[in-house]
Amino acid sequence: MTYGHLGYAYAMLGQKDEAEKILHALEERSKEEYIGPATLMLMHQALGENNRWFECLEKAIEERDPALSLMKVLPEFDIVRSDPRFKAFLKKMNLDK
Questions:
Q1: Three-state secondary-structure class, residue 86
Q2: pLDDT, tens digit, for every residue of 24-54?
Q3: For the stretch 74-90, what's the b/e string if a residue is b when 16 or more beta carbons lie within 10 angstroms of its beta carbon?
Q4: What's this model's pTM, rounded to 2 decimal places?
Q5: How far apart are CA 44 and CA 87, in angstroms?
């Protein structure tokens, strides 16, 4: 997830072109090797692509990505916390308490 965190940092610093290059590279690599959905979620969230974030979330749920257990507490995901879909996710995963 380190490469994803680099892209996240670029996006948060306003360097969206660099972040999008990393996201594209990760998406291409995911065709050949496993890239966890949480990594792609991080990138989409930082780029403000909430709909794509939730698409990756569904994939993460299907794949039982271990990073899901941290979604409630990781500050990287603060931006999506107010979205009703995030609240539904927490309820679905029994993390809403």
A1: helix
A2: 999 999 899 988 888 888 889 889 898 898 8
A3: eebbeebeeeeebeebe
A4: 0.76
A5: 18
**pLDDT of 16 over the 90 cut:** yes
Residue where the block lists tokens 């916390």:
81
Residue-wise DSSP of 20-83: HHHHHHHHHHTTTS---HHHHHHHHHHTT-HHHHHHHHHHHHHHT-GGGGGTTT-GGGGGGTTS
Please state, in angstroms and as integers, the Cα–Cα distance from residue 93 to each residue in 3, 37, 38, 57, 62, following that order: 27, 16, 15, 12, 12
| Cα distance from N-terminal residue to C-terminal residue, the chain | 28
Q: What tens digit of pLDDT does each residue of 50-96 get?
A: 889 889 888 888 888 888 888 778 887 787 888 888 888 888 877 77
Residue 50's alpha-carbon distances to 31, 32, 54, in angstroms, are 22, 25, 6
